[in-house]
Amino acid sequence: MSQLRVFHENAPNTILVQTSDPAEISRRLGEVGVRFEQWQAGAPIKPGDAPETVIAAYRGDIDRLMRDEGYQAVDVISLNADHPDKATLRQKFLNEHTHSEDEVRFFVAGRGLFTLHISEHVYEVLCEGGDLIGVPDNTRHWFDMSEQPSFVAIRLFTNPAGWVANFTGDDIASRFPRLTP
Q1: Does 99 belong to an annotated binding site?
Q2: What pLDDT is stored for residue 98 in this prediction?
């Protein structure tokens, strides 16, 4: 079940807000400029489907975002517990970083934990199949796929060649919860 938890940046053991209501998650994230939506597939999707099949199932929503927000490219990423580079890939995004363009991810299946550091608060967003999160450019955040990753996500880009993590050097991510398998 999708979930939002909010903490003060200096109190990782004290939850200020916790909700699993998608409308409330969307409202609270919208207040800080983060997009949260839930999409329905236009056709049945199953693990292992070809990227073209996944994109075709969500073509209407993808086209809407590309038209309205200027995204230029779309792809599909799929990662499971058997992936030989899962530990390296996980470690890469566990430290706080930013991107110079929006990070837009739609979880077709599985789950991932986006944690956003905005002003003096930390927003922990557990995204599951059906959830879209849009993190604005230059937002401090980290991402955890767990030690046993399992997700399929559609990614949208304004410039896929320029999507690079800029690490902040802040160790804040090490003080907050990780995604357990």
Answers
A1: yes
A2: 94
Cα angle 81, 169, 143 (rounded to 5 degrees) comes to 25
Cβ pair 63, 149 in contact under 8 A: no
Strand 140-144 to 103-118 pairing = antiparallel
> d(Cα 102, Cα 53) in Å, to the nearest integer?
24
The annotation status of 103 as a binding-site residue, yes or no, is yes
pLDDT on residue 41: 79
- Joined together, the tokens standing for residue 120 give 């003096």
Distance CA 125, CA 78 (A): 19
pLDDT at 162: 56
Query: What's the rounded Cα separation, in Å, for the pair 144 and 94?
Result: 6
Q: Which residues of the chain have pLDDT under 70?
A: 160-162
113 sits in which H/E element: strand 103-118
Residue 121, marked binder: no
Q: What is the pTM of this model?
A: 0.92
Known binder of ligand: residue 8? Answer: no
